[in-house]
Amino acid sequence: MTDNKHSFKGKVAGGNIPKNLETVSINSIQDIMEDNNDMFVSALDSPTDSGLAGLDTLDISANNTEERNKISSSDTMEDLFLEDDSNETNDTAEPPPSAGVSEVNMDGDFGVSEVNLDDDDDIFKSARLEPKPSKASSTLTNGVSRDTNEEPAETDIPLEDDEHPFEDAHLKPDLQLSGPSPTPATIQQTLTSFHQEEAKREMEGGDEFIEIQVTSPHKVGEGMSSYMAYKVTTNTNLSYFKKSKPEVNRRFSDFLGLRDKLTEKYLQNGRIIPPAPDKSVVGMTKVKMSKEDESSNQSEFVEKRRAALERYINRTAKHPNLRVDPDFREFLELDAELPKANQTSALSGKNVMKLISKVGDRVSLYTTKMEETDQWFEENTLMIENLDLQLRKLLVATESLVDYRKGLAGHTYSLSKSLGMLGSAEDNSKLAAAISQLAEVEEKVEKVHEQQTKDDFYLLSELVHDYIGIVGSVKDAFNERVKAWQAWQSVQRELNKRRENKVRAELASKQDRVNQFRQEIAETESQLDMAQENFEKISRIIKNEFEAFNVKKCKDFKDTITNYLENMLKSQESLVTHWERFLPEIQQMEP
């Protein structure tokens, strides 16, 4: 022991000393006397920490010179002197309770280290004056105040060999901290509240949906002034609809008028507008001129149109930009007759002008060939052309299939009637019964063929027909991009022309003309920037629309073909059942 510096070794259980706590050097009385209030009051207030997390080093600084207890230098050195190996037996003995002994035990892999401060005054007096949940007489074990009368509970805290032993502690059930700990309950309450909030948001929001049904076609009026009206029922949870289940009556021209309004607003921006059903002058004229007792003959035409209108309005409702349009919402919610849509007839002046405009656009497209610089548009334009060609070929094949199946159903029906008449004319009762049963089977087969005909038409043929129209809408959107490019190039040519005129005016020393051309050039440059921005915007929108079109196309074809094949399988199973029931009966018949 020297006069100025004393070093002491903490006795460690097991003989191992932590790396971060090897030697505590004490230069003076100020090195020992720390602000004990901060160190031990924090330990008492936070029992869950238990001195385990973050207890790597114990630094005793000499910054605080005002201590509550004044102790002489000689007494301090005498009290803090720790004997060497010759006096180990005296060190292990417990000090008397009156000596004011405080133990700091660090359990776990660090062993136990004791620091005994024998002094007349208790340096932990301020710590004992703080309110404690335990009794007055207590000891400090791992920073947790425990009653001396009670046996401290043994704790087994496995410390893993990593830098963050308490990371993901909630995933380690064996890691339990002693003493009361409100933290887990707080965390559980927080997690429960979070899950409840998330579930509440899902219940309130949910998946947005809108389903529209077109039903109850009925004739309004008589003669050529009559028209067909349909009941449109909407079921939705979209917040911008005033009602969740509105019901309105709409005529065919209202659907066409809605499509024209949406086209005028959104096609110029590159949106793909679902096509409305085709107009049929012949079919509608027959419906108008038919009488009540003849209306059943026109039911097939009306049903086809009703189904086409339902598919059209649902495709429009699935478009995220079109379904929020005020005209679309008015179409579904306004419980009154809409203003009559003008120029929607097949031979109206507006349709004639549309036809002329399309011819003009086609001519302009060929005369002003766009130099495509975007490989994406070049590839997909070619793909759309091929898709349109293949769909048209497929439509011809499906229509032939529908006609064939319809003819098969009709011939089967004729066969069943002929067999029935033959059975009634047969003298042999057993043979007559067998023929009559065969007639019944053929009649059932005719019903199966009739259902197959409907499946061929409404599931397969109509899907192909609809997508021919949708591909046409895609081509219209692509043409709008070409128009935007042509407008951009037109402004560019106009700008070049005015710049040339400005140069000529400068050469001719016409300053007034030069100033005029400068102003015109500035305006044209602004128009050029707007035209270029519009072209780029349309290109971005078309790409997004085309990706959505591809996804929807794949889903529609998958769902429709799956449904079609399931129905075909049921039809074949029904045919097999009918013939299997009839075969044993005819085999058991005696000649």
Task: Describe the structure in your own words.
With 591 residues, this protein is mostly helical. It has 14 helices and 7 strands. The protein has helices spanning 29-32, 36-45, 73-80, 88-92, 125-129, 183-205, 252-266, 281-289, 299-318, 326-333, 349-367, 375-425, 429-507, 511-588; strands spanning 6-8, 24-26, 138-141, 144-147, 210-220, 227-236, 247-251. The strands form 3 sheets. It has a 3-stranded antiparallel sheet with strand order 5-6-7. Strands 1-2 form a two-stranded antiparallel ribbon. The longest helix is centred in the C-terminal third of the chain and has 79 residues, at 429-507.
State the gist of this model.
By secondary structure, this protein is mainly alpha-helical.
Q: What descriptors fit this protein?
A:
591 residues; mainly alpha; two-stranded antiparallel sheet; 7% strand; disordered N terminus
Summed over residues and divided by their number, the pLDDT gives a mean of 74
Which regions are unreliable across 5 or more consecutive residues at pLDDT < 50? 1-30, 32-205
Radius of gyration: 46 Å
The share of residues in extended strands comes to 5-15%
Please give the order of strands in the largest beta sheet.
Answer: 5-6-7
Give the topology string: H per helix, E per strand.
EEHHHHHEEHEEEHHHHHHHH
For the secondary structure, the number of strands is 7
- Count, helices: 14
Given the helix and strand composition, which structural class is it?
mainly alpha
Question: What's the N-to-C terminus distance?
Answer: 132 Å
Main β sheet profile = 3 strands, antiparallel
Percent helix among the residues?
55-70%
The coarse overall form would be elongated
